[in-house]
Amino acid sequence: MVMSVDTDLLRVLSDPLRLRIVTLLARETLCTTHLVEETGARQTNLSNHLKVLREAGLVDTEPCGRFTYYRLRPEVLEALSGQFAALAATARANADTKRSC
Amino acid sequence: MVMSVDTDLLRVLSDPLRLRIVTLLARETLCTTHLVEETGARQTNLSNHLKVLREAGLVDTEPCGRFTYYRLRPEVLEALSGQFAALAATARANADTKRSC
DNA sequence: GACTGACATCACCATGGACTGATACTTTCA
DNA sequence: TGAAAGTATCAGTCCATGGTGATGTCAGTC
Prior knowledge:
2 copies of one chain form a homodimer. The first copy, chain A, is α+β, with helices and mostly antiparallel strands. Chain A has a single domain (about 5-95), classed as Orthogonal Bundle (Arc Repressor Mutant, subunit A). Chain A is built from 5 helices and 3 strands; from the N terminus they run ααβααββα. A 3-stranded antiparallel sheet of chain A has the order 1-3-2. The first copy, chain A, starts with 6 loop residues before the first helix and ends in an 8-residue tail after the last helix. The mean pLDDT of chain A is about 95. At the A-B interface, helix 1, helix 2, strand 1, strand 3 and helix 5 of A face helix 1, helix 2, strand 1, strand 3 and helix 5 of B. The structure holds a DNA duplex. Chains A, B: One of its GO terms (molecular function) is DNA binding. Chains A, B: It comes from Kitasatospora cheerisanensis KCTC 2395. Chains A, B: Pfam families: HTH_5. Chains A, B: Keywords: DNA-binding, Transcription, Transcription regulation.
């Protein structure tokens, strides 16, 4: 039984800047200002990407005064990892299965 | 140490039809004709997507007379799975790390 | 209450890429 | 050798989406 991978989630992660953000957030919880410093991207651009990450359930927001902290949710990445592992296992199990023409 | 995930590979996998192809190939090795039957997509369209999958190293081709068999390469998916797992593990380890503003 | 900083939203533009029809190439078979 | 089937390539169209500037909103500070 092959678990289906969510293409929307993959699309979200396939953007270089968004993956950069995710990688940075894996190391520490940051707010937008930090991300602007780290990535060199414009605030507007980052805000747009963070919205996408939020809507994909990849990050949680934590308002703190006038700052907004962004925290990565490991569960989502773990699930994705598991889905790819399952897909790879299926492929290995059926390595010799070939439909004839 | 966070392994960097390849965004190009993610972009390739984030297309619904391509992921569909990958999922089908995980179950059995197929040729283009089979994929046309299974997906309902045009031959030209499929050929384009298969080229993308080939160039991304996700599939191997095996010519067989006038047919071309496509075989999924599990290593690539396994590597991807491991990279996401590592990223998630990093995030769990640093769950309480927060940079102050 | 006026001002500044942090962040979000909006409207717009530019570009990548998915899909298509036409066509070329290659193999098999009559 | 001609025809048909399987597949790849090419040129073109169209749309989704990433980037940007202008602007809005809210919290803290004077």
